[in-house]
Design brief:
The complex is a heterodimer of chains A (about 400) and B (about 140). Chain A is globular and about 75 Å long. Chain A folds into two domains: about 140 residues, Alpha-Beta Complex (Aspartate Aminotransferase, domain 1); about 240 residues, Type I PLP-dependent aspartate aminotransferase-like (Major domain) (Aspartate Aminotransferase, domain 2). With about 400 residues, chain A is α/β, with parallel strands linked by helices. Chain A has a seven-stranded mixed β-sheet with strand order 2-8-7-6-5-3-4, with helices on both faces. Chain A has a four-stranded antiparallel β-sheet with strand order 9-10-13-12, with helices on one face. In chain A, strand 6, helix 7 and strand 7 form a beta-alpha-beta unit. Chain B is α+β, with helices and mostly antiparallel strands and about 140 residues long. Chain B has one domain: Sufe protein. Chain: A (Alpha-Beta Complex), CATH 3.90.1010. In chain B, strand 2 and strand 3 form a beta hairpin. In chain B, helix 1 packs across helix 2, helix 2 crosses helix 5 and helix 4 crosses helix 5. The chains are: A alpha/beta (about 400), B alpha+beta (about 140). At the A-B interface, helix 9 and helix 13 of A face helix 1, strand 2, strand 3 and helix 2 of B.
Chain lengths: ~400, ~140
Amino acid sequence: MLIVRKVYLDHAATTPTHPKVVEAMLPYFTERFGNPSNLHDAGREAKNAVEEARAKTAALINAKPEDIYFTSSGTESNNFALKGIAQAYSQKGTHIIVSQIEHFSVLHTAKSLEKAGFTVTYVPTDPQGLVDPSDVAKAITKDTILVSIMHANNEIGTIEPIAEIAKITKNRGVLFHTDAVASTGWVPVDVNALGVDSLSLSGHQFYGPKGAAALYVRKGVRIRPQIEGGVQEDGRRGGTENVPAIVGLGVAAEIAAAELPRRMGHVAGLRDRLQKGLTERIEHMVVNGHPTLRLPHNLNVSMWYVEGESMLLFLNMDGVSVSSGSACTSRSLKSSHVLTCIGTDAAVANGTLLMTLGMGNTEGDIDFVLEKLPAIVQRLREMSPLYEDMVKKT
Amino acid sequence: MEQYSSKVMEHFASPHNVGEIADADGVGTVGNPVCGDVMRLYIKVEKDIITDAKFKTFGCGAAIATSSMVTDLVKGKTVGEALKISNQAVAEALGGLPKVKMHCSVLAEEALKSALDDYYKKRGKPSPVKLPESVGHEHEME
């Protein structure tokens, strides 16, 4: 029998739900189906489960359980933080600072706040994707109410100097939000060590279910609800809780906290093997991001003379799942705003592959990709007019 | 994004007519690497009939499939018939393209027109080909 190898290298898109997470969730669909808002036993049972998950989620990021608000997604958490804080503090000021490489759930929210009368400064990064804290300091005015810089970038994996920026914002009396959706569960995240006032995380990024995420809001920080209705989540987020998913998020947080050093070691080892192997086998390849301040499971590479989607499709035929950052996949035919910000040549940015590893990957998986990808790149280069021109020139 | 048709995947996985024609009678290169696609199309013409066509393409799945298809369609046609091949004809022959990929069929049509234009010019004839001002594809701006 032919055994077809399936290699999933797209953990930044989503992770499989951990079997222990699924197991913990299942009773909350059936025998423990109660609504946490109800006082009867069924309700109380669900309420207890939600509070237990809150404590576990808080523990993962060294927060107090009462500072955790469950939401439906990382996107909702970022919308909630930016809009909720901006609206609550609009009497104090209307200026916001974000980085140019934020996820669209921050960037598009910032654009929307601009339409609502706020002003936004978009700070750049260096070629490795790092925000310079002094750029943030310089951008702060007496009108600034909020800074939002992501903990780690979801495409190139660069880990930002959050603690340093937090010292500046604290000094200047400005609130600081960080989007830690890409980093939580993959590197230590400690809201006190980071010194942030709010932080977003999402369960399905680290073996939890889709549909459960959280926003941490430090006690004393005002935030306007964005989903209005009942008094769920301390009156800050209406709507009946997604109890099974929240239970799953809690268990995923518990597993992440317990196995974090092992998880980091496993994925970093495989990532380094993949990076080294590709560098040895493929000419004209660029590794994007920071060499050391990078998420341990992230590898983002750009190949000259070939286009990302074509590589992705050929890898998919070989059973390998990756992401591409090519313009041709996007509606606007523009390459990734992150690669544009770090100054990647637009022509090579279209030959980008994002490979993100996970606990299920093995050395065998990496060696399989090292066997397949160089051949795919070569095949595509042989049909590329840009490669032909380069060869003829040299 | 919508999925590709099976015909597109077939042409992408095993594209027809990949390569160069050393003594081509017409060569056209269109597109821009910044936008993600560059197509180069070669034609060989004998007694007004296109006897061979080859291509080299840098681009996505749809760009490679449309290059493969347009070179298939053009072979055996007269130069006049080839001039009438539209991007819709290329897309239809591939069983349709996702909406966001229609620009690839436009590029295939432009690559063919550019090669035909080159053919006329090489023969010292006035070219009836109307090339867009900047040969490349149109951007769907945000």
